[in-house]
Amino acid sequence: MKIVIVGGVAGGASAATRSRRLSEEAEIILVERGSYPSFANCGMPYYIGGTIASRDKLLVSPVERLRQRYQLDVRVRESVELIDRAAKQVTIRRLDSGEVYTESYDKLILSPGAAPFRPPIPGADLPRTYTLRTLEDADRLAEVTRDATRAVIIGAGFIGIEMAENLVHRGLETSLVELNQQILPPWDAEMVVPLERLLRERGVKMHLGDQAKEFRATEGGLEVVLASGHTLQADFVVLAIGVRPENTLAVDAGLNVAERGGIQVNCHQQTSDTDIYAVGDAIEVTDVVSGKPVQIPLAGPANRQGRIAADHIFGRESSYRGTQGTAIVGLWDHGAAMTGLSEKACQRLGIAYEKVYLHPADHAGYYPGATPMAMKIVFDPVSGKLLGGQVVGRDGIDKRTDVLAMAIQAGMTVEDLEEVELAYAPQYGSAKDPINMAGFIAAGVVRGDHPVVHASDLIAGKLDDAVLLDVRTPEEFAAGAVALGVNIPLDELRDRMDEIPRDKPVVAYCKVGQRGYMATRILKLAGYDVHNLSGGYITYEQVAAAKPA
Amino acid sequence: MKIVIVGGVAGGASAATRSRRLSEEAEIILVERGSYPSFANCGMPYYIGGTIASRDKLLVSPVERLRQRYQLDVRVRESVELIDRAAKQVTIRRLDSGEVYTESYDKLILSPGAAPFRPPIPGADLPRTYTLRTLEDADRLAEVTRDATRAVIIGAGFIGIEMAENLVHRGLETSLVELNQQILPPWDAEMVVPLERLLRERGVKMHLGDQAKEFRATEGGLEVVLASGHTLQADFVVLAIGVRPENTLAVDAGLNVAERGGIQVNCHQQTSDTDIYAVGDAIEVTDVVSGKPVQIPLAGPANRQGRIAADHIFGRESSYRGTQGTAIVGLWDHGAAMTGLSEKACQRLGIAYEKVYLHPADHAGYYPGATPMAMKIVFDPVSGKLLGGQVVGRDGIDKRTDVLAMAIQAGMTVEDLEEVELAYAPQYGSAKDPINMAGFIAAGVVRGDHPVVHASDLIAGKLDDAVLLDVRTPEEFAAGAVALGVNIPLDELRDRMDEIPRDKPVVAYCKVGQRGYMATRILKLAGYDVHNLSGGYITYEQVAAAKPA
Questions:
Q1: β pairing state of B506-509 and B467-470
Q2: For residues A539 and A533, what is the distance between their CA atoms, to the nearest angstrom?
Q3: Is A327 touching B (CB cutoff 8 A)?
Q4: Do B5 and B111 form a contact (C-beta atoms < 8 A)?
Q5: Among A243, A244, B8, B416, which residue carries the largest CB count within 10 Å?
Q6: Please, are residues A279 and A301 in contact by the beta-carbon 8 Å criterion?
Q7: C-alpha angle with apex A196: A195 to A200, nearest 5 degrees?
Q8: Taking a C-beta distance cutoff of 8 angstroms, is the pair A494, A488 a contact?
Q9: In this model, does residue B146 exceed pLDDT 90?
Q10: Do A402 and B405 touch (CB under 8 A)?
Q11: How many helices (H) and strands (E) does chain B have?
Q12: For A499-503, which contacts have Cβ atoms below 8 Å and span 24 or more sequence positions?
């Protein structure tokens, strides 16, 4: 068995080492265009920022180890240029010498990854505009960062905001330009408002809903002209707009490629040519929740796909279950995590959904150091099946997202979340974990126990006929309220119920939704047409701060 | 509807507030023997130790709020003494006045909890021997701790080791006496070895496999005579041996009570009298994994049971799914967590199992601050169904335990763990999360790809006929090895294979099991009868340090 693997990072490296563990006889050729296979590309922003002090740390599996331990024929700085499917051979170019040769294969695994997108605008190719993909890219950016004072980042996705943190860490005046009205486009806009605030607090100049129209070389730097008319001065620019699947090889070879560019594969990672597999950021995957084809570049799935391709080559029935889009990104001591479908994904796909917001603490409030998180879960309004979750905050966001990811993987409902038994001690959680709380709230909505309305509807004027009932204290009400409305603190509600008109719908709200929930129950049992404002005033503020897309 | 609830902590408080949310009309009487319903009993050790500075923090739901917001008839310092099932009334004693009265009920909910066990030995009732159950107990211990210099803790369960940490934090010379040869009896002995070392490092004098035979009053203190003959001097003693279900009321009323003391209930929390419910630490529950009745006192389940009892009283079909024993305990910046069955529980119940150990880092090794954890999962050797997991370490142990808890809840197999998609960024995890790694290892064992042997078998002499093959570096080998054996570093294995006899079984091992795994694959593909030592030298050392029960 002779296997040629195109691309040595993540999926390619996993396929190679897995193949070796399955066969000592196989000839395994790993062709990597860069100088380093299997390097930690997710660590690059932190290497540039200095948090990862040593470059060697990023070399997870050095070439020597891949060669020695896994007996891989690793060929770095070589590029596969052409696939001859009929002859089952590839044409490879040695990048340093320009020399070209052919190599036959029994099985070919494509793991070419995705390439950073350079916008087709004037100046996008100027020397001081950088993308971040290879370790050499990181070296260049680390170098240029050392002497720079001002940088502009185009794109506020994962790499964009990680670069923002790290350039601020290096002391640079940093501007962040994003076409969308929000950072981190996979998340719903209101959920990332706290991180947008954090970026501003840390000095990042935010240009949301704007885009670069032109880059101009200036003396010793660049000028970035934005669509809004603003002009930003920078020593250099980081282009972090997004990535495109590297599909040239596949397209040229006539393999099936999706409209959005991803190489199409079956559950065993086979392309339309059964002797050619494809894995990682270059492929189209099936979304676990929606069942639709999507393009989601993530490291975990890439590794698993590589393993599955190798398994299948050696006669095993391993199959890929699809991608659910579980992701997390840190931003100083904060972060954002998600799994499954966002609300806007549901809207885009026409999937019926309901949502709830909550703001639990990461651990018991009576133990020091508890911090709040914002959680949003999206679920089927009838069956309660969990469709997705988003968690933003400081501590414990990764844990709750992983638990939600497991729930989605298992096809659980929000009623299941009520019942799950998670680890509790005061340093780690609460007897009623945020996951249980999300279940209580969402399952109560599904059951009709305490109907909710949403800040977006309130802001859109859809609830103008309703009485807004603020059940917080007068002090909280005075400090800022949703709108003119009635303020009856929860503990006075039963005594002052006659102040609330019975002929109008009532929207109760508090700070995070908990007192509003109790008020909703009291009024519902008293016969009112009442809804709770999900997530309370905190969510309302986030929604109000988020601009519509 | 008139509901009387016996006991106002956790399950009782949850039942009361849930009942009110379901009915504004119900008369809800909450009878609490102590002065404080709904206080944070899990926080008491940290209040005594000073980490929780304010006592008020422990009063989660003050009496006033329960009365005002939830319209509960809260009666503190009153004790239900008798149930008259025929008349559907209880006899209540006012503890301060001694006055006795009766109260009728439509539904009675028993949430009496469990009482700390006082050993039947001389001196166990001396004034300076304390148990920790009520807030008054915590007050007394906080008080006595202030002026003390030496303390002895009897029992190294949750409360015992939390008290040890907190007394050390207060500067006390602390001794910990435990009948078992290990701390934290629910865990397998080898898993808690690192925490036993930590306790010793922090100055706690450990007396495992020992027990108090007598307490003697001395001038200003106590003398603790141990079975081993040691005598410990102390200013006071904390009795933390364990708890017994408070079942007197239930027994006197003729309700079904299990042999081990727990009140028996159905899935709606009804006792053998359908008008009497029972919840929390006083009841027997069904183990989710084994299906057997067990006695597991935990806060999360108590809260859920309270909610379910209230639901059922108001005509809802909520039912309890059983307890899976998900638990965690912190110890300084370390901790131990578990879910499902331990190995010894499988042995006790006669359940067939296999196990694997691993020592992954909590997050990507290339990002600063990664710490190792010890993980053990127990699974069905044929189907691969996950039976239980234990995780001990610093960061991220709670997350992995919660993910395993979800997997058990969903009935997942170790093959499912290979495929689950968890949140990865370098600060939070790895592209191949510890959970995926556990799945890879365990599923490979189930499939027969890389059979394992265990340190316990090695120590028991069961593998004496095997060649022990250390595939670490010569430096690692020289620093300490399992036994006399061959040292062939992994990267030299293929070239030096002729040094390994082919007529004997081979046990390969390394530091944590990863290189041993690769060696096992290489040798297996070369036709050897080879096994990997699960968890490698680190697990071996833990197992060797743990004394048999």
A1: parallel
A2: 9
A3: yes
A4: yes
A5: B8
A6: no
A7: 110
A8: no
A9: yes
A10: no
A11: 16, 30
A12: A500/A467, A500/A469, A500/A528, A501/A467, A502/A527, A502/A528
Phi then psi for A507, rounded to 5 degrees?
-115, 115
Task: State how far the Cα of B358 lies from the Cα of B377, in Å rounded to an integer.
Answer: 9
Tokens describing residue B499:
């040094």
Q: How far apart are CA A31 and CA A466, in angstroms?
A: 65
What would the pLDDT profile of A158-178 be if each residue is shown by its tens digit? 999 999 999 999 999 999 999
Residue B353: phi, psi to the nearest 5? Answer: -150, 160
Which phi and psi angles does A212 have, rounded to 5°? -75, 135
Separation of alpha carbons A515 and A471, rounded Å:
7
Residues pairing with B468 in the sheet: B507
Write the pLDDT tens digit of every residue in A420-445. 999 999 999 999 999 999 999 999 99
Does position B483 have pLDDT exceeding 90, yes or no?
A: no
Find out whether A309 and A7 touch, Cβ atoms under 8 Å. Answer: no
**What residues of chain A score a pLDDT lower than 50?**
none
Contact B428 A398 (CB under 8 A): yes
Of A40, A329, A405, the CB nearest to B421: A405
Task: Select from A172, A203, A162, A211 the least CA-distant residue to A43.
Answer: A162
Other CB atoms within 10 A of residue A53 CB = 10
Q: How many residues appear in chain A?
A: 549
Distance CA(B176)–CA(B164), nearest Å, equals 7
Non-local (6+) Cβ contacts of A98 within 8 A are none
pLDDT digits (tens, 9 = 90+) for A394-424: 999 999 999 999 999 999 999 999 999 999 9
Task: For residue B47, give the nearest of B189, B149, B163, B198 by alpha carbon.
Answer: B163
Interface predicted TM-score of the whole assembly (ipTM), two decimals: 0.97
Q: Beta strands A27-32 and A73-76: pairing type?
A: parallel
Helices (H), A266-380: 299-313, 343-349
CA B251 to CA B5: how far, in whole Å? 17
What is the spatial distance between Cα B528 and Cα B383, in angstroms, rounded to a whole number?
A: 26
Q: Chain B partners of A10 at a C-beta cutoff of 8 Å?
A: 431
* A323 vs B10, B43, B421: nearest CB: B421
Burial of A475 (0-12, 13-18, 19+ CB in 10 A): exposed
Give B483 to chain A, closest Cα distance, Å: 25
Digit-coded pLDDT (tens) for B399-438 = 999 999 999 999 999 999 999 999 999 999 999 999 999 9
Distances B236 to A239, A474, B147, B165, B239 between C-alpha atoms, Å: 66, 49, 11, 16, 10
Average pLDDT (B285-303) is: 95
Of A58, A303, A432, the CB nearest to B366: A58
Length of chain B: 549
Helix (H) or strand (E) holding B398: helix B397-409
Residues B426, A299: C-beta atoms closer than 8 Å: no
State the virtual CA torsion across B375, B379, B381, B385 in degrees, nearest 10.
-140
| Catalytic status, residue A42 | yes
CA distance B100 to B269: 28
Structure tokens given for B34: 């102590």
Query: What pLDDT shows up at residue A549?
Result: 59
Q: How far is B150 from chain A (nearest CA, A)?
A: 26
What is the reported pLDDT for B227? 98
Integer-rounded Cα radius of gyration of chain B? 26
Q: Among residues A249, A5, A33, which one has the least CA distance to residue A107?
A: A5
